[in-house]
């Protein structure tokens, strides 16, 4: 057996896999990175941590962890309408495991290349497995998609097919959105597990919506919980028809109506976008979505009130037992 690699060898393994960008004057290797921000644009910064046992089960493949650690941060940039540029990575590992690191980098680097984001620095330490990424991007002044911009009468939209990742969790034996069991064929199981393992951050869609949508958030904790953030920040209520939510074929085949509503309205981890926009922008948004290759669906409207107002197809109030994941909530520790 070869000796465990030292910190510098690990960092060198990381450095070899980095995407090259012209605006990185000095990347990994010095005391800090030296970067050339484009003139006239606003810097958007996001940070998200993944802890073993909290954000992913202990046996999760390293490549899936690498993908997800970057995906959740790209999703935050997307939700702001920002174009990704740079990221940093703080990696805490119980031991210097080069094979694990290479697997991690397979997932991380594949997604980084897809979105042209350069890893420009970080920190490597010994400790419980934990991955923290910061992502940096740019948006034109006044064009960022904020939570506080929804206006009365706006349409409420979602991208993709929410609920798949939560279904993937349930199939992996972890209850989500109050659902602890669903039945799925092997093929559907694989499709739903993949949606959980490899969320696709809606980067191109978010950037296209900048300056068009009035507000936006990415759905990490559950559609209703996250939509309520827009509602509260904007002083309005997002009325959402839980029967208008588009379901993937795999989810539709695997869940009855009640289960599907719960997973789609209250399940997290999809990293789709929920946004509001004026009715006058409908055609433009449909065209953008086609161009980005991401389906978008109108699922409600912005009304007077505060937070979120879930309704069924008949317009009757619909309330799940729990609306989304919250760290430190008494029943989720
Ligand atoms: P210092 O002791 O000056 O903080 P380090 O030895 O921690 O330097 O890091 C050396 C270089 O390697 C720095 O440029 C740092 O940003 C980079 N680096 C360290 N760990 C990582 C990592 N996990 N991912 C990316 N870059 C890293
Ligand atoms: Mg350091």
UniProtKB/TrEMBL annotation:
Residues binding Mg(2+) 3: 31, 76, 218
Source taxon at top rank: Bacteria
Positions of Mg(2+) 1 binding: 48, 123
Pathway assigned to this chain's UniProt record: Cofactor biosynthesis; thiamine diphosphate biosynthesis; thiamine diphosphate from thiamine phosphate: step 1/1
UniProt binding sites for Mg(2+) 4: 31, 76
Segments forming domain PurM-like N-terminal: 29-139
Ligand binding (Mg(2+) 5): 221
Domain PurM-like C-terminal: 153-309
CDD domains according to UniProt: ThiL
Residues noted as binding ATP in the record, renumbered to the chain: 122-123, 147, 220
GO molecular function: kinase activity
Residues annotated as binding substrate: 55, 269, 325
Positions in coiled-coil regions: none
Record: residues binding Mg(2+) 2: 48, 76
Top-tier EC class: transferase
Reaction catalysis annotation: thiamine phosphate + ATP = thiamine diphosphate + ADP
Keyword Coiled coil in record: no
Other comment: Reaction mechanism of ThiL seems to utilize a direct, inline transfer of the gamma-phosphate of ATP to TMP rather than a phosphorylated enzyme intermediate.
Function as written in the Swiss-Prot or TrEMBL entry: Catalyzes the ATP-dependent phosphorylation of thiamine-monophosphate (TMP) to form thiamine-pyrophosphate (TPP), the active form of vitamin B1.
Entry similarity comment: Belongs to the thiamine-monophosphate kinase family.
Name of the protein described by the UniProt record: Thiamine-monophosphate kinase
């Amino acid at each position: 057996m070869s000796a465990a690699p030292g910190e510098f060898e690990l960092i060198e393994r990381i450095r070899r896999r980095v995407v090259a960008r012209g605006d990185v004057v000095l990347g990994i290797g010095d005391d800090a990175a030296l970067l050339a921000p484009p003139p006239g644009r606003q810097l958007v910064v996001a940070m998200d941590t993944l802890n073993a046992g909290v954000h992913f089960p202990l046996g999760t493949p390293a490549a899936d962890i690498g993908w997800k650690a970057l995906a959740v941060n790209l999703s935050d940039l997307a939700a702001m309408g920002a174009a990704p540029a740079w990221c940093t990575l703080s990696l805490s590992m119980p031991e210097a495991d080069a094979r694990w690191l290479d697997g991690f980098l397979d997932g991380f680097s594949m997604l980084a290349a897809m979105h042209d984001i350069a890893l420009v620095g970080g920190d490597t330490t010994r400790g419980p497995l934990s991955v923290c990424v910061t992502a940096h991007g740019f948006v034109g002044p006044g064009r960022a998609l904020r939570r506080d911009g929804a206006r009365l009468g706006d349409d409420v939209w979602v991208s993709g097919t929410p609920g798949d990742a939560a279904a993937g969790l349930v199939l992996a034996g972890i209850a989500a959105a109050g659902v602890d069991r669903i039945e799925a064929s092997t093929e559907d199981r694989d499709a739903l597990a993949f949606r959980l393992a490899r969320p696709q951050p809606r980067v191109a869609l978010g950037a296209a919506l900048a300056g068009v949508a009035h507000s936006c958030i990415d759905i990490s904790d559950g559609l209703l919980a996250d939509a309520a953030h827009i509602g509260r920040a904007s002083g309005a209520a997002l009325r959402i028809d839980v029967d208008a939510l588009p379901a993937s074929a795999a989810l539709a085949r695997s869940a009855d109506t009640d289960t599907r509503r719960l997973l789609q309205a209250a399940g997290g981890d999809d990293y789709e976008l929920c946004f509001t926009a004026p009715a006058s922008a409908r055609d433009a948004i449909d065209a953008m979505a086609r161009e980005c290759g991401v389906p978008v669906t109108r699922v409600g409207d912005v009304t007077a009130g505060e937070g979120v107002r879930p309704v069924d197809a008949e317009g009757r109030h619909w309330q799940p037992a729990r609306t989304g994941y919250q760290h430190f909530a008494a029943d989720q520790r």
